[in-house]
Specification:
heterodimer; A: about 375 residues; mainly alpha; B: about 400 residues; 2 domains; three-stranded antiparallel β-sheet; about 5% strand; RNA binding (chain B); PCI domain-containing protein 2 homolog (chain B)
Amino acid sequence: MEKYIQGECMTMCPDEEIKMRETQKLLHILEIAPGTEHYRLPRADKNKMVKEFGRSAAGKTHNPKSIRPPSVLLKTVHFLMTEVATNTTIPWNVIYDYIADRLRSIRQDMIIQNTNLAHTITILQPIVRFYAFSAYTLYGCNRSIFDDFLNNKHLLECLKRLLNNYDDFDILIKTKQTEFEEYLLENRPQFEAMYIIFNIGEEAAILRGINLDQKWRTSEVESAIKLSILFSNGNYVKYCRLITHFPPILAALASLHLPKMRRWGFKVMSNAYNSKTLTYPVKKFKTIFLYNSDEEVEQNCGHFGFPVGVNGISLQKQYFKENTENETEKDNKNKPMYEVPFVKPEFIEEKVFDTCLSDLLLYS
Amino acid sequence: MNYMSLSHYLQLVERYWKTPDGYKLATFLSLRHEHAAYGNFQQESPEGLVERFLCAPIDEFVCYHLKCLYYIAQGDFQEAYQQQSALTQAFIKLLQSQKEENWSLPIMYTVCLDLRLVAQQAEQQRVGSNAKPGEILEKAAECLMGCFRVCAADNRSSEEDTKRIGMLALVNQLFKVYFRINKLHLCKPLIRAIDSSPFKDTFSLSQQITYRYFVGRKAMFDSDYKLADNYLTYAFENCHRSSRKNKRLILIYLVPVKMLLGYIPSKYVLEKYDVIQFWDLVQAVVQGNLKLFDEIFERHESFFIKCGIYLIVDKLKIIAYRNLFRKIYLMLNSHQIPVEALQTALVHLGQTDVDLDETECIVANLIYEGKIKGYISHQHKKIVVSKQNPFPPLSSLS
């Protein structure tokens, strides 16, 4: 057995780092003691300091004094989700950058110590929710403010690790090497469903879902599988309808695929309703594809090249604007759609913001 | 009773090493050969005796082999795997040092096949240990890749002596591992290596069949049904008639692929190969009987999941929709079909939550795919189908 370091740092940030960042003026605005902002060297608020992420490099050994044991890591996650995430005085994207960086250092400490399954699961769950929540709230932001690619990468990495941990736990339970601890696993369906929805239309993710033990195939997971199959079958009517039934974070993630589904809808409908004289009512289109207003529908129609008259949308095959040629259908459906204007559906916004943010991240 | 004494065995190994006879050596290093079952070959520390008969490097091979047999007899597949893996590593070194000769390929086939089999056993036994699921098989795959690299890089030797002829057998072993640990994306570079190989058509028939079976399945997962059809059909037609189990395996994938492309299997074939589960499904799809379809899908769900055809069978539902709509078109005998008529039929057949919007959506997708020729008029709530060939045969679509 390899030996792993046991952390000894009992605060969210090692003393050494606090001193170093204080003297080098590297304190984050969220960590500065109130009233000292204008000092030549602003003072640190020790209760708010959280260890920064630093890349581990070759030759650098880890000092147990700067590594936090699992219980402190868990406390730090809670601090970030309750005290920092709910801060409304500074822009969300600044908070996002801050939390995302601190979560990375938490994950790093976790991996260095090879924390046990129970700890890893409880630490990872809120982290994954945070990335998922951010993927939704910051969708469409300029790349210079929010890097969705990086965020998705972290989301997927943590989610996969979490699912692996669930699998390992399953094996331990089956071989009776551990007690079944219900609180650790009660959220599992949410994350199984999240994996499927995040990788919408992807066979590998669906396969994971259908191969799950019956115990985990809750209605949430079943709906996620259904949603993914609806997506790959191009059933835009039912896809949009099913989104509304998911709990906040899952609904939010599912809604991010709407631009792709709408584009698919335009493509299919301009073929199937192809007519020079007939039109399709704007109101109906709005309801089916979950737009907020008629104007939004008209704008989107304009984007794809379809004129909207008094009677409705004129769907004609020849109008549909293909952004790039030589694409297979599958690519088309899965292509990121940042160039298409996307306004988040109001009902999802309500769903997401109706719940207290820290509850959403920690307990949802 | 003994198969033969250990010293006799060692003498024979020495003779075949000097000959050299790859085939004979392969059987003597096989975990599945008759000698493996006898206690006198299961040795925990055979080094002393082996060294008296054999010199390097063959002594090393035999030691690992006998130790592997010992641990298998003890039921310790973890340790058995370690020995077999060490044997394979040692063999790779030998293979690499042999220029312009390929007589040892039969040994490679045997050693590599055994490695995978032992790894599978070890994987099943691993529960409770620290290894991640699939880790042992992944390590075995790395080992096989080591062999593969040596074979693939051998491009100086003449055609008779080239080790590149051994590539396909290794690729097939790797496929088996990758399909088992669900890492299909790793198959792609292997497929490319085989497809661009000048020996593409000279590999043995049995290897080609295995190869096409896996590439066909991979194509199926990638939704490339034409290609899947090609490969699986080749595998089915060329697979020997006495290999019923293999033919059945191929058929499990070939049937849904063929059905998606518009071909209906005969009951005789399904019965002959014991895949009669498909017959009800065929009926449901042909009749457009969605209710029956859902029932069968539920009843055989675990069978479909186990075989990895759950999603492709689900896709057959689209064909069932098409057939149902065609039936209604024929019954109404009109080129204008009320959307409501279709919806009523869907609800009647158990699709109770389908409304007019979704019915239109299903038809729209069918039109887009070319399975129905016509257009929808939302204002008149009608589907207007083409006067000529409104439901073109599926097999005519590309």
